Amino acid sequence: MVNLSSGLSRTADLADSDGPVHFYPGVAYPASKTAVNTVTVQYAKAFPGVKINAVDPGYTATDLNGGMGTQTVQHGAQVIVPRSVTLHAAGGTRWRTASPQTRPLT
After folding, report:
1. What single string gives the DSSP state of each residue in 11-62?
2. Scanning 33, 38, 41, 87, which has its CA 20 to 30 A from the CA of 48?
3. Model pTM?
């Protein structure tokens, strides 16, 4: 299972005044993506035989951000599957960012 997350889901990044997402003024979107991460972790604990992960496709130009993202919706969609495959191979519950890094979903 792969859930769609966002870099805006990480509260430490939102709180960091020098961080790349500190500027974001909204409440609902980051809160909903933080909830997605929590559900991902809780499902992974409840179903240990199923690989359950979250993927952040990167800053994608959508109506939500007024088309200001750095990639198209098509590109954002295309990166989800390869990142999901990488997560599957890594095992455990992980969060894949728009960068090549993988880190535990916490």
Report:
1. HHHHH-TTSTTTT---SHHHHHHHHHHHHHHHHHHH-TTS--EEE---SB--
2. 33
3. 0.75
